Amino acid sequence: MSELFSIRRPQGPIPASDKVRVRGMSHEELGAWLTEALGAPRYRSDQIFKWIHEKRVRSFDAMSNVPAAERARLEELATLEGHALDAVATAKDGTRKLRLRTSDGQFIESVLIPNDERGYTQCISSQVGCALNCRFCATASLGFLRNLHAAEIVDQVYLAQDMLEREAEQSGAQWPERVTNLVYMGMGEPLHNYNHVRSSLGILTDAKGAGLSGKRITVSTSGLVPAIERFGREGLGHEVGLAVSLNATTDAVRDEVMPINQRWNIATLLAAVDGVPMQRRRRITFEYVLLAEVNDSDDDARRLLRLLRGFRCHVNVIPFNPHAHAPYRRPDPERVRKFMHILRTAKLPAYLRTPRGDDIQAACGQLALEASA
Ligand code: SAH
Asked: Could you tell me the distance, in angstroms and rounded to a whole number, from the CA of residue 323 to the centre of ligand 1?
């Protein structure tokens, strides 16, 4: 029997800062703060927002159209502190794992996966470690250190884009490659850090900043029902995509592999997901990690079809990526094929997610950090 479900408490808060973290402010918040703290004219917030989020400068000094006196004042009151790029590993398939060191010396990871649109899909982290205890996930074994600030969520994207631009410069490429898509599927449970994740979405999709399209952003959750309801109420379903890690078709199995199910079971979870208002053409994504002899039978496939009947959705089937912290195995290819066949025969849009970057431990669930081991 698994222990009763609990959401771990963080080992600590987001470190306090005596300076304002301007990279984590929305355009509006920045404007209000600049007026109050600097008495700056209205148009200044446009300029400064662009410097931070479009040009991604890392010092106030670089903001050449801001008067020197205001820059000096910004230096005193505000900070652009971000992560340091600690290490980059490149897999044979082109997937890149970035290890970033936060300003308080924690390590987080972010993964760049080449996509079909000649850009990168970046998988970003929302917490250091995770409060949940999914049995197949390597991040769970780290414990839950703390939430990431909105500034720390967006900085992952900026550091990755900076790296791609440096590379283009070095190789003499005419255009740098771009991060075009984002998935909140790295370390942590995004909806457990709701406020900072929501702020980060607003910042990253602001047309005056990074200008990413909400259509190309997906937030993935293990099934934190009250937060899914809030996501729906606040209209985020109209802005970005929602992915739900289902990973089992019976409560008995899901209780075991994802203890959060002991609090909000499959029926409760699916009812909450069904209640999220979404853009008309948008589909919910369900993720289904295939664990050999745990959730990969023909009956599982048929139950999955029944559970998802009526949803505008697609399913990402992810054969388990093995790691030292989990007692599971990846099903053999024939079992995977049969599982997929049942879903597809019933016309459920199901995609097999082949492991990316597994030779550098960057595949799903492998973002446990050698550095902190
Ligand atoms: N906490 C969020 C986002 C992080 S997990 C969530 O649960 O959705 C991102 C995805 O990776 C989830 O669908 C999860 O089920 C999957 N995953 C985790 N560990 C895995 C592993 N070892 N192999 C394959 N997929 C895994």
From this structure: 13
Total-model pTM: 0.96
3-class DSSP string for 90-149: ECCCCCEEEEEECCCCCEEEEEEEECCCCCEEEECCCEEECCCCCCCCCHHHHCEEEECC
Nearest-CA residue for atom 18 of ligand 1: 365
Mean pLDDT of the chain: 94
Distance of CA 143 to the CA centre of its chain: 18
**Ligand 1 atom at minimal distance to the Cα of residue 323:** 22
- pLDDT band for position 368 (50/70/90)? low
Whether the CB of 219 sits within 6 Å of ligand 1? no
Complete domains list, the chain, with CATH: 20-79 (1.10.150.530), 84-372 (3.20.20.70)
Residue bearing tokens 């802005």: 239
Q: Is the pLDDT reported for residue 245 higher than 80? A: yes
pLDDT at residue 373 in the model: 43
User: Is the distance from the beta carbon of residue 121 to the nearest atom of ligand 1 less than 6 Å?
Assistant: no
Substitution candidate for ligand 1 out of 142, 189, 220, 315 with most atoms within 8 A of CB:
220
Q: Please report which helix (H) or strand (E) contains residue 273, including its range.
A: helix 266-274
Predicted pLDDT at 4: 60
Cβ(316)–Cβ(131) under 8 Å? Answer: no
164 with 138: CB under 8 angstroms? no
The finding on whether 318 has its CB within 6 A of some atom of ligand 1 is yes
* Tokens matching residue 215: 């259509």
Ligand 1 proximity of 127 Cβ (cutoff 6 Å): no
